[in-house]
Amino acid sequence: MELAIGKAGDRDITVDAQEVVTGRTCIIAQSGAGKSWGIAVLCEQLLQARIGFCLIDTEGEYFSLKDRFSLIWIGSGESCDAEIGKTDIREVMHDAIRSRTAVIFDVSEAEDMRDEVAKLAEILYDLESRLKQPFLLIVEEADKFIPQIGVSIKKIEEISRRGRKRGLGLMVATQRPSLVAKNVLSQCNSQIIGKLSIENDLKAVSLFFSSRKEVEELAELEPGEFFVMGGLSREKVKMKFRDRVTKHRGVTPRLVPAPPVPVPESPAAPPEEEVGEDPPAAGDAVIPVLLREEALDIAKGKRKRRFRILEPEERIVSGERVYRPLLAVEVRYLGGFIRKTTKTASFVLDACTGCIVELDRGMKVRPGFSELLGLDEAAVKIVAGLANGGSTVAEIEADTHLPPGVVKKAVKQLAQAKLITEVKTMGSAVVYVPLLTEEVPGLHALRRGEDLPMEPLREVPLEAKVTESSLRTILKGLEPTAEIVGLETIYYPVYEIWFASEHGERSIVLDGISGKELPLPVS
Ligand SMILES: Nc1ncnc2c1ncn2[C@@H]1O[C@H](COP(=O)(O)OP(=O)(O)OP(=O)(O)O)[C@@H](O)[C@H]1O
């Protein structure tokens, strides 16, 4: 029996139901790359074929399968078919296996998720040792239950080794393969692998590929695209999971630009009554992917070493996660050849430095407005427009249409900020040359990047240095018609790492999503 799960171009991709149900499969892809979608498609196919399975749902996102299919939803609350803690799970699972009924085991509200899952794994293994009826256990967020470091649910490990003979298959899903017990991953004879970008995770799946080049292709996959390999497919095939029959509940919330709000110069003290044990959310933060241990591990590889001596010259002094404020900005301006067309630009700015950042598999830092902070509008206009060969004051006046007094004052401000320098030429004319280390980007060239999954921030973030008014001044200097129409602060996790050696201390900033070193200063 074949299950139609996706498409490669016009070709339907099917997988063998027997292999899915009684084999060991891993579904791996970073957050937002389409794992839950893919698992739901597989479940829909299994439900249509009346094949029994039990899906451990850690986020409460699969109950929409009930809209179209008959299944048992075990969870917390009265709307469930059976409540955890109030029902005899063994009896329910026994009947489900016998009647080939699917079960959603929703632990999203359970007090101790691991404990409930451990009990379920025991029950399933025990029942299947007697019943031996094909049945599949699907474990979402496997890194929570069978971690590489920490206490693993031994029964799931046993199912991965000895489940097949009992008719009990295992499908494990994770966004962080490097955090899943290696002995379980290596037992997976079938793999469905989507987009991955973190080096440790790429390394963790390299055992399934024959070359590094193949592994690197994973970083280029689009959401929904997966390689299907091993027992499920005669040869490695790249496919996109098909459309769902039921509604997808794990939809990524869209970041909607908020109406302009003033950015406070410094964080205001919270009102008395709000100070409690659980502080109110400071805003929305991108969910970190990298654990502190992993950040420290990456930092170890970045220590300077003495020439030809393996012993590192530097020691890691500290490594802490902090949240940098980012400003998601939307600007409207008049553009086009005769400046009659209203254009919009959306971009994200690091509010500590003024650098432009693009969110895409982590953060990409691009030249931005850092050197322009604190200048007035005229100075921004002049320095951003100065040709590399430089201009005289008269040429600046002609190019900018600014009055002589304003140009004189701005030139003085720019010279003090060391953003221009004088080059004497023939005769008495003085030519001013720009000293900007980075070219100022045009508004049309700014991009916002991807929306990353967010959660409420419950710790104190770093302080923003860029205010709305300083940003408005820069934008007006670059484009007089520019108006800020949306401004929202979001927070981004980074690790600040400090090294020390006999020569002193230095620091680096690691991206909390991709683990890459960022060209940003520590706070
Ligand atoms: N095959 C697909 N076809 C169409 N859209 C898709 C497909 N796969 C994913 N998507 C889109 O991508 C979004 C994210 O997918 P999904 O929720 O499955 O991610 P995920 O890998 O499970 O993320 P997380 O691990 O953070 O839960 C979905 O809301 C959906 O809009």
TrEMBL record:
Amino acid composition bias (Pro residues), ranges on this chain: 256-270
Which residues belong to any copy of the Helicase HerA central domain?
A: 10-135
Q: Name one GO molecular function term.
A: 5'-3' DNA helicase activity
Q: Which reaction does it catalyse?
A: ATP + H2O = ADP + phosphate + H(+); Couples ATP hydrolysis with the unwinding of duplex DNA by translocating in the 3'-5' direction
The record's region (Disordered) falls at: 252-280
What the entry lists under CDD domains is as follows: TrwB_TraG_TraD_VirD4
InterPro entries, per database record = HerA-like, HerA_central, P-loop_NTPase, WH_DNA-bd_sf
Q: Which Gene3D superfamilies match?
A: P-loop containing nucleotide triphosphate hydrolases
Domain of life, per UniProt, equals Archaea
The family classification in the record reads:
Belongs to the HerA family.
Q: Under which name does UniProt file this protein?
A: Helicase HerA central domain-containing protein
Originating organism: Methanoculleus bourgensis (strain ATCC 43281 / DSM 3045 / OCM 15 / MS2) (Methanogenium bourgense)
